[in-house]
Fold these 4 entries.
Entry 1:
Amino acid sequence: MLSVHVPARVALDLLEGALGREVATELRRIPTDVSLADTEAPQYIKDGGPADRAWRLLRNNGGVGWVTAGKLLARKRPRLVPVYDEVVRCAYRTGRGFWSCLHERLREDEGVLVDCLTRLHTEAALPPEITTLRVLDVVFWMRHRDGHTGYRCRGLDG
């Protein structure tokens, strides 16, 4: 449901092969209920942490780009891993270290952003399976997608 293409060979390896076992090992190291706004989130998303290792395992397989790898992880850990593609990257004006940057933004000002996202979630009458992190993903993507000009786009501040 995240509009990604996983090459058949990689999909089979995820379902029945070593890649699936290795990614599953990393995912087991990440509690399903940890949120990107939680104080313990950095241990899971830091360089060399289990989310980063799982992302790199996916990326190191031919045909799986950074967007697809991230979206697969976002689907498996929707409270912790944000959806991140070209439009979102441009909107946030970030690159490497996006997960940590967003973690800090969610925690600043006593969690005012999380409170706002929770209100939006309630007002939209979204089911509990839709996390506040997904609300943020959608808000930024919708806000910037029409104005996104691709290469050299100035982002939301431009």
Entry 2:
Amino acid sequence: MRKIVYHSLTASLLLAACGFIGTISGQTVNPSSGAQTQEEQSRATVVLPSGRDEGPPRVASRTDLYCAGFIQYVPFPTPAVQIIGGEQEQEQRAYAEGDYVFINSGSRQGVKVGQTFSVVRPRGKLTSKFTRKKGYLGVYVRELGQLRVVEVKENVSVAFVESSCEVMLHGDLVQPSPQRLAPSERSEVALDRFADPTGKQNGRIVLARDSREMVSRNQIVFIDLGAEDNIKAGDYFTVYRPAGGGRVTRLKNEEIAPTKHDGFESDAYAGGKYSAQSQRTKDFTNTPGLYIKDEAMTTYEIKRRRPRVPRKVLGELVVLSVQTRTATAIITRVAQEVHTGDYVELQ
């Protein structure tokens, strides 16, 4: 009997609780009263994705565009605008995203609040054994990040580091921030690895970002073609290597064994004087009955006398920004690794 009463009492309590919760959930807030809970207010400000088309995909991200660096032929203006300090300079000498820095230019020099600047670091004149151009190609410049001016004094401004590619130091140069737009991706077609030359502008990869000597897809390189060669941002280039070119070693002849020699057979069994490692004997295709040389035909001789064969197509790249004598580019497709010194040709 006690068990029946206990279960009935428990069921009654549960039903009462459900009814109370239902009453609360069924209440509504009068809009005219303005009485909204904090949760409802925050829920009202949520913005869902609109589903709008963001445009065609780009070949490079913002980081690729503004951290790639460049080779500048035109000298920097003087006096130089540079980072001369920072809010926390007593504790730090290197600055990055989120820090406040001081630059030696203010209202007297025309600086305004909200103005953006790029921070760059020249690394030195660039010359290359690969280019056919005379003299140096320019000064290799690293891009370190971007600043936004938040307060302006007479000769000094305070700037907030909005983005950083690497740490910024006292003395790094400040210049107006460029406006760059990455080219749209093209519809990919099969890479023609035996494509004939186009006869258009032709140059070479003279440097890669971070001093890499072997690069691949989505990495930054610099070519020795620029505005003086009528190159513009968005131009696509084929990356290639001449047939037989690009050897790591300088050995031209890999055949090191003669065709025939007395040392190849034993005196007892005379298994044969012919080397198993040599190429064919010279003059074997001459008129029968003539003297046949016992010298080996070498790979070098075959290549020297052959007709032109297809070049080795390695991939393609697209130009992101153009300087006077050079251009900054990103590799978009590869068939194999690309080296500094490889050739490029405008498509």
Entry 3:
Amino acid sequence: MRDFIFKFLITLIFIVFLGLPNTSESAGADFSVTLIPQNPTPGSTVTAKLKSLHFDVDRASITWSVDGKVLSKGIGKDVINFSAPAFGKKSTVSASVTTVEGDFGSDSVVLVGNDLDLLWEAITTTPFSYKGRSLPSLQSQVKVTAIPYLFKNGSMLKSSDLIYEWSLNFKKDKSASGAGKDYFIFQTKDQDDYTISLKVSSRTNDIVFEKGIILPLGSMKPRILLYKDHPLEGPRYEEALKGSVEVDSEISLRAEPFFFSRNNISFDWKMNRNSILPDEAPNILKLKVPEGERGESSIALNVKNNFNVLQFANTALKIIFGNN
């Protein structure tokens, strides 16, 4: 009796095992399409790559098409390059696969011509007519402004309606992120590189675009330059004064601090190592040659940020007067 029951159980288990579905067989060719970069700018080159863990890609027949036009076809053709769509336009990238076992599958990715500009400038001092970019120095603030170009159904979304997620050195700043927050301000702490990244999305989260920039602080330091200040024409910014300058009767020196934080900057003027105070603005020193005298004088200037001991600069100039 025991032998009969044992044989019956063995037979039952065998029958049940034969009745289980075969999980190693696939109803279709399962794969994915990856885009590099994931957020291409309009007109740039995009690489699409096919990947699968379920079949041998090198032996599969693969057909690629963009907007219905076949771009590539053949055995193991797992990569294609194509151009991203123009601003506001849409492209569909499709891949069809037939494996060596005869399984078939297809997948597609839709691209929209979106873009995102990130513009940065340091909140530091420069002359009024300065045409260059304000650069950061140690412990200065930097402002990054986002200009998004995101499209939905052919229309560009309003910047104020988008959600902004800012990250500094790959750490999200929750206080700086949110709806309509299209700019980000941070303070430099050392001379390392700073990575600023931004994820912009629509309110329904169906349109998403990401971009980042690297800001190399390097050895950027504040500077101080001296210019002649003409009483009628104003400062002569086309040429900074260096080394020495000859003066007939009088001269007005204008000191311009570059890349200091915009708060509490002090100017310490010295003539022949003796302190001298300007008559008007702290950055403008007027000198008049005593009648009948000839000689040389050394002018030194130390500039510092009274709130930040790491921001300072100095310069010197030799005044040669009374030669004419």
Entry 4:
Amino acid sequence: MTALHQFLPSLAPRDAIGAHTLAIRKVLRGQGIESDIYAGEVHRELRAEARSYKEWSGGTPMLYHAAIGCALGDWIAQRDEPLLLDYHNITPPEFFETWAPETGLLLAQGRAQLARLAPRAVAGLADSHFNACELTRLGVANTSVVPVFIDPSGWGALDTALRDELRASKRGTDWLFVGRLAANKAQHDLVAAFALYRKVWDPNARLWLVGGTSAGPYQIALEALIARLDLADCVVLAGSVSAGALGAYFDAADVFVCLSDHEGFCVPVIEAMWWGLPVVAYAATAVPETVGDAAVLLEHKDFATVGAAVDRVARDEKLRSDLVGRGHARVATFGPERTAQRLLEALEDVGVLR
């Protein structure tokens, strides 16, 4: 094969799927394979990197990144070129029915499009075995696991001024979670667990929640919960931040706590490990697979269990050191060179590359 072009709903900066798509293009072009990116929407910062899918002339295999419902998905369903699916997980729409029903409809549409595309796909790629199982259930006969490309060299310079400011104001254990404010990310459970932690273990602890919002009403409810629990002075909703500021939060925090109910991979836990930050995580969906043996995994997320786990990580230097070491080893398994090799092997296994 001499060409494999990629298609995705939206190409945006500071987005894991967008970065993954750009990395795949680099790998394919490095193998002498023609590869361009076509998208339903292209952010102004990346206009030089992609074109509208309506400009595609057709006739060569297509690699579609499935992540949400969109007009592009319906368009691809009408094509007859050889199709490969790269599945990045679609959050079950019920997580958004209360908070952002319009997003829930797009997610439901995405799952319907995926079910329609899967039987005719010649092969599938998935970020995790969790996602791969879903593709297999939908009828993709040849599915390989190729993780999201993670390349710390592209994260930019650390905002040392912010890092130093965060450290200077430290009085207790600092929790961090990174992810868009959304019900499936369960920031409400994090806040409730943190409230108990402050009462029982560390009255000077802080919680930083970094990430934009996927549902305005959910953020409003979260802010009300923070106020009701009298946590306004110690829980920070940082919003979407620059790469340098994100690094500052990772570098200043004591523990990364993830209580998410649904993840197809969860890149932030790997970012935390890269920064040498120990991870405590609820063992749901793809999270156990992503963290491997490099985190404290919780089978249940009752708030006392969460608090006790965080307290142990904060106080037990041997455990903390072990988690940091295991974390660095885990990050190495997701290095861009290894992921590139897995991608090429997957494409060769299904006969896409010869």
